[in-house]
Records
---
Amino acid sequence: MQCRRRRTVVLVTLFCGLSGVCYSLLAEADEAPATKPAAQYTADGKLKRPADHRKWMYIGTPITPNDLNDGDAAFPEFHAVYIDPDSFAHFAKTGEFRDGTVLVKELISVGSKEAPSGKGYFMGDMHGLDVAVKDSKRFKDEPGAWAYFNFSHKLPLKDESTKSAAVSCNKCHEDNAAKDWVFMQYYPVLRDANPRAK
Ligand code: HEC
């Protein structure tokens, strides 16, 4: 994210007296650059795969290993989840997911079940990506104004994706997620940042 601020010279007119003479002051103001929305679309409305989500806020890693799911988990196996930084800041202030919120879920295989630290599940390689976007204008007809996108569950990932049908994604999120279609109950970073829980 670009943080550089441009300093702009602003002419502030303080007051114009009866004589018609105006007293002015040259002041410097901070002008924040407009940040690019985290969700970018092609001309025909497909979502572009976010390019820099690994620089976003990481919020948690649910894991559904294949060996606990009859060898074939629906979303194998680690799910490393990120939220775009401006929406995280908004959430930390308000406890709400704003319009424009983007959540990215990377799917990562189990690479090994043993490490010097003990037996367990240890990350292999990233092989899939899913994204959720909230936008009450663009997705006003989607339940909860959330749209869900699959960029493939095996490499190579797609560069753009058409939104999935609400019945394949939104319904389970709506019925089971702790907050506004988001499975906040599994994301310690969001729970701890939530001002409403403090
Ligand atoms: C049967 C229920 C179910 C269905 C159907 C489902 N999900 Fe999810 N989804 C979950 C659960 C549970 C989590 C959090 C825990 C996890 O990742 O295992 C989650 C998390 C996510 C996240 C991370 C952000 C969040 O909302 O918590 C994304 C992105 C996501 N799912 C995308 C999708 C997409 C895309 C589809 C449709 C192709 C889909 N999901 C269908 C249950 C579901």
---
Amino acid sequence: MSARSVAAGLLLMPLLGASSAAIADDGVDRLTASQAKYILGCGGCHGIDGVSNSRLVPDLRDQVGFFFNSQAGRDYLVRVPNVAFYSTSDQDLTDILNFMVFQLGRASIPAGAKPYANAEVARLRKRPLNETSLVDYRRQLIESLSVSHAAPGGIYAYGSVDYQKK
Ligand code: HEC
């Protein structure tokens, strides 16, 4: 190695060292790709970490996984119109839904729950729940699920005015 290339290497080393240290330790939290997709498409209403106005928009955090206790509940999460009609690819929607259930809904997922598969999401989003009362559909789903599974308390917050009228 010539003296010149050794000198060039020595000059570059601290520069490279400094820049990689800056990337690793700049105090800024990085988003995962799925998290970024969720925030872009859903976070405006549901909140960055899955909680916003719980009475008007259902909480997702530590709650949404409850629906994984039945096949109908699992299907429901994809068939909600805001989800089914979200204009993105099946793969992106699958990533968003798995982020939503397994990261945001973490504490509420039943043991052994399997992530959504791309083909499953593609199939279910073709059957959106847009010709039914969503509030009634959701209430019936929760009632039938809570016979055998303890529902997270916050699940009743959404549409709570309707629940009180009952
Ligand atoms: C414009 C606001 C808005 C956006 C954007 C939105 N949602 Fe929702 N979401 C709601 C509301 C309001 C409900 C309650 C049912 C309804 O009226 O659609 C809901 C219901 C849901 C439910 C049912 C939860 C439950 O407890 O019953 C899920 C799951 C869901 N949304 C996921 C998503 C995902 C994933 C996205 C992004 C792809 C998304 N939403 C985008 C407002 C929104």
